[in-house]
Amino acid sequence: MNILWSFICLPFWRFSFLWGVKTGLTCPAIDSSLSTSNVEKTFDLYRNELDKALENISLIDLDQIDFKNVVVIHIRRGDYLNPSNSFGILTPEYYLKALELIPGYENKSKIIVTDDPIHIKDIESKLNPNLILGPDQLSAWQTLKLISMSKYFILANSTLSWWGAYLAKSY
User: Fold this and answer.
1) pLDDT per residue over 125-163, tens digit each?
2) Is 0.85 topped by the overall pTM?
3) DSSP state of 72
4) Closest of 64, 51, 72, 10 to residue 141, by C-alpha
5) Cβ atoms 116, 134 nearer than 8 A
6) Integer Cα distance of 126 and 114 in angstroms
């Protein structure tokens, strides 16, 4: 899986953040003018391989979740805290506005997945999640699977978020 993971982690700046373009929400430093048609054609070549890899990833404690009624919210901080390595940290307002765009969000469970569960109190207080999962609970592969299983998700400005949304099953 190391070669596959290297492909997944291609630099995010190459990809258009389509969801942000569609909704009018923007992520810092993302150039939405980039074409995704060639990117998606290339990714389609790897989709089956990634789907097969994710089939073997276990989410034991989350097997009972109805992912059609859950919003998975991916919050990336970690190395993004260093401005020279970063696209910037998304604000609590970004996540709240994105949540409000989801039909019936008030009646859906919210799961936050993050690489920094200790330092997201400002976002946590606004979103009132049912569950917060960090790197001690989920590997990067499990996070990818969790996002891809969801009908509703709010993405961070990260490649992992993009791949999760791209691999999501249609409902």
Assistant:
1) 889 999 999 999 999 999 999 999 889 999 988 888 988
2) no
3) E
4) 51
5) yes
6) 16
